[in-house]
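Margin note: ligand = iron/sulfur cluster.
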Amino acid sequence: MTLRIFVSRDAGAVAVGAEEVAVALERAAEARGIIIEIVRTGSRGAYWLEPMVEVATPQGRVAFGPVTEADAHSVLDAMVADRPHSLRLGVTDEIPWLKRQTRLTFARCGVIDPRSVEDYCAHAGYKGLERALTLTPEAIIADVTASGLRGRGGAGFPTGIKWKTVAQASADQKYIVCNADEGDSGTFADRMIMEGDPFVVIEGMTIAGMAVGATKGYIYIRSEYPHAVAAMNAAIAAAKRAGVLGPRVGGSAQNFDLEVRVGAGAYVCGEETSLLESLEGRRGIVRAKPPLPAHKGLFGKPTVINNVLSFAAIPFILAGGAKAYAEFGMGRSRGTMPIQLAGNIRYGGLFEVAFGITLGELVDDIGGGTASGRPVRAVQVGGPLGAYFPRELFDTPFDYEAFAARDGLIGHGGIVVFDDSVDMAKQARFAMEFCAIESCGKCTPCRIGSTRGVETIDKIRAGDRVAENIAVMEDLCNTMKFGSLCALGGFTPYPVISALKHFPEDFGAAPPRLQAAE
Ligand SMILES: Cc1cc2nc3c(=O)[nH]c(=O)nc-3n(C[C@H](O)[C@H](O)[C@H](O)COP(=O)(O)O)c2cc1C
Ligand code: SF4
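Resulting structure:
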């Protein structure tokens, strides 16, 4: 009998030894005369358990982790004899951290072979496209709109409205662009799904092409993601061979072709217009809007540009789940959000859940507090432009509007946890320094303001006329917030001001103007 074993090929698992574990399992099986088949999957997202190894059993897959090379023999023995083992985690789907999730987008990630279109189809893949092929473009867009899906890249713009705008634009050529630049601190969901379930992204983009009348798409992936680039390229080739991508998609009259383009590594190239400049072969500099990319985007043509997770949500919605998707969530934040728990956190990883869960539940309950065991002091939500939240705001529900009401943002769903050893004035300086380094330089408030911001925080940290310099900092933040052309300069004040507001003691003195405003 062949033992089917599953080992992740996700970059996060590979980084902690998944390749070596796969080889060690093969050698151990050979030495014991056991026939095994190792399926390389994506990650389940419970990163503290990687390398996690699973075996197919009549009860379902049973997991072991974290497994090292040295454990290969004993783990294999435990698998064969169905014996207890110190690393045995039980039936994978019953692991509480995984069971608590609502995996609509990540349902197949960590389960299927990301190189096999057959495996994707065997797990309900391409059902969305199948249905989309029976619908008019208007009906596809109506479904996306009804699902309430908002862009997962950061701004939370309704996806259905964006698609409708492109669909209504008349042009000889339109494009679909997938934003896989994923620059936010603590985020990895785009990488994880591209490596673990690339077909769901391809299927979502193909449906978008049909909805708006685009025949060509590009996936712009950051160069730091070589595993994702390889996974997407392999999946594109497999989808073409299977006839679900390329000319006459699925035997229909629709054509849709896809290409991967690799970015050169700039945070601002995640900003949509800068990304388009980069795709066209120029330096990544932000374009003034209007015109919107939906009217005049890639090569001057109407373009849908969406985040990886936005496209990856589409197949579920089209497979008949617009209402099912919309039933999850709260307020205007519908569906689920793949939240990424990172930084100093005990149980870090990918946690997909309906909007509405509180920040406290995510950090304390699901994340298990800090990895260092020290108290949580601050949490930055939404990447380097997101606000720092203190424990007093842990009752904030994960929802676009609720975070905005507390001067924060959920961005791409990244949560970075800090313990009580963090120096928040240093973090504020880091926000300004990051902006100074990553600024595209097009507008003055961001280009010059961020450098002046670093200098001003240095003065505050050195105890130089603290109250006056805090006032200068606030003025500077206002200028950046209201005078910058894009959100890089416009949102850098959020981490700075939130650090100042919630942790004034780290700045050497209480900021008088902020206190007066409260
Ligand atoms: C400085 C900056 C960086 C950004 N980085 C990303 C990114 O890495 N990935 C992403 O999807 N969106 C990023 N965005 C947002 C995009 O401009 C755009 O809103 C998004 O790609 C639209 O897709 P969505 O509607 O699916 O979210 C960034 C925006 C700014 C201002
Ligand atoms: S805010 Fe910064 S990154 Fe954005 S356009 Fe201005 S200079 Fe460029």
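The two ends are 70 Å apart (CA to CA).
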